[in-house]
Design goal:
With about 425 residues, the protein is an alpha/beta fold. The chain folds into two domains: about 130 residues, Alpha-Beta Complex (Aspartate Aminotransferase, domain 1), CATH 3.90.1150.10; about 260 residues, Type I PLP-dependent aspartate aminotransferase-like (Major domain) (Aspartate Aminotransferase, domain 2, 3-Layer(aba) Sandwich), CATH 3.40.640.10. The protein is built from 15 helices and 13 strands. Helix 6 links the parallel strand 4 and strand 5. Helix 3 packs parallel to helix 12.
Length: about 425
């Protein structure tokens, strides 16, 4: 093997060694218990978990597990194919109808992961010209098969700068002109929209921002979308099940009508304790995604047992509002007390409470010191956040008790004292 073919692997190995030796390589513990509980078993002892997405404690709920077990017994482990082939199973459609009803949209399309929902749906929407040309060939109106364009003419995407990585990657795959606008800066967005010469416009924003824990100005986004005849899609992965009088998400929190937002994306991983993602909206737009979203067409769907369990979890979340209320109260308490210790929680408004550290190496040391005290709370650093903006991202669930949060606060103060000496 010559040097040319060996060099890239050697460079990769050398880089990994450098990152590990510097203390920047993620130290993810091997967990020997369910990671959906506030107390987990790591390295032979109990640890408090403050980064779980099992926000409402539904992953291990007896009724959820029973629904999943019954579906597992009936349908087996996997789906046996894609939805376009043999695996369009009744539990998949039942879940799609249930989540659409819950968020107040006509229909929904489910994906095997939330990431797949965004990277599938965003570029799919911009393929309308290609799909239209393809339909004409199938109908005999045209004789030449169209080619997918290397770029998507006629479209401009307006994307919030702190959107989730799955939105960012979906935008990249869309191959359209992109204008980013600063975090929650609707004035700059309006300027971009007014200056655009594109026929079709597409505004994309998270509903709740995953690293800052603040909420998007959806009423203003909806107003701008209407004024500029733009499509609007909200990624509500961290809002659905948690925000609003009935837990229906960021739109309900703001009092925005679902008719004002064309597409609502969300996941089943957070509030509903499962896995998977969805996009909800007008029935015909959802039907279009079924024939254009590649991550739907060319991938196996959710296992039937997961689909059945998630549907049950939605029912429980809807009838037991105390779960989201307690999670939010835990977050309010922790936010208030950690601020009293002098820590910066940025603009946190929800169950996600970041504690800004700044320097990446310092953040890694905080994580290590907390772990030494029996707390699992990884830090977020670039590229998840900007350089110099590393933070510990704490997540409060309905299953955390006040004594556990108080212990976390004590350990954070001790870690800061250790690092300041």
């Amino acid at each position: 093997m010559n040097d040319i073919t060996r060099r890239p692997p050697e460079r990769i190995k050398s880089l990994v060694r450098l990152i590990k030796n510097s203390g920047l390589y993620p130290q993810n513990p091997i967990v020997n218990s369910a990671t959906t509980e506030p107390v987990i078993w790591v390295d032979g002892r109990d640890h408090l978990l403050f980064c779980s997405n099992n926000l409402l404690g539904l992953s291990n709920h007896p009724e959820v597990k029973e629904a999943a077990a019954k579906a597992l017994d009936r349908y087996g482990l996997g789906s046996g194919g894609s939805r376009q082939m043999a695996a369009n199973i009744d539990v998949h459609r039942a879940l799609e109808r249930r989540i659409a009803e819950f968020v107040g949209q006509e229909d929904a399309i489910c994906f095997a992961a939330g990431y797949m929902a965004n990277v599938g749906a965003i570029p799919a929407i911009l393929k309308v010209d290609f799909i239209e040309a393809l339909a004409k060939v199938h109908l005999g109106h045209e004789s030449t098969l169209p080619e997918e364009a290397s770029v998507t003419p006629g479209w401009e995407i307006f994307s919030e700068e702190l959107n989730h990585a799955s939105v960012v990657d979906g935008v990249r795959l869309a191959k359209a002109k992109v204008s980013k606008f600063p975090h929650k800066d609707v004035e700059t967005l309006e300027k971009h929209l007014s200056a655009s010469d594109r026929e079709s416009k597409f505004i994309l924003s998270d509903g709740v921002f995953s690293m800052d824990g603040d909420i998007a100005p959806i009423p203003q986004l909806a107003e701008l979308a209407n004024t500029h005849d733009s499509l609007l899609m909200i990624d509500d992965a961290h809002g659905v099940g948690m925000l609003g009088a009935n837990g229906r998400g960021s739109l309900e929190h703001h009092g925005v009508q679902t008719s004002q937002v064309d597409l609502q994306m969300g996941t089943f991983t957070k509030a509903f304790g499962g896995v998977g993602g969805y996009v909800a909206g007008d029935r015909e737009i959802i039907d279009f995604l079924r024939i254009s979203a590649r991550t739907y067409i060319f991938s196996a769907p959710l296992p039937p047992a997961i689909a059945a369990g998630v549907a049950e979890a939605i029912d429980i979340a809807e009838r037991e509002p105390w779960r989201r209320e307690k999670a939010m109260e835990n977050a309010r308490y922790f936010r208030r007390e950690v601020q009293a210790l002098g820590f910066d929680t940025l603009g946190s408004e929800v169950h996600i409470v970041p504690v800004l550290i700044g320097n990446e190496l310092d953040a890694a040391e905080y994580t290590r010191l907390l772990r030494h005290r029996g707390i699992v709370a990884p830090h977020a650093r670039y590229p998840a956040v900007a350089l110099g903006q590393a933070r510990i991202r704490f997540v409060m669930t309905c299953e955390h008790e006040r004594e556990q949060i108080d212990y976390l606060l004590k350990c954070l103060g001790e870690a800061r004292d250790t690092l300041s000496h």
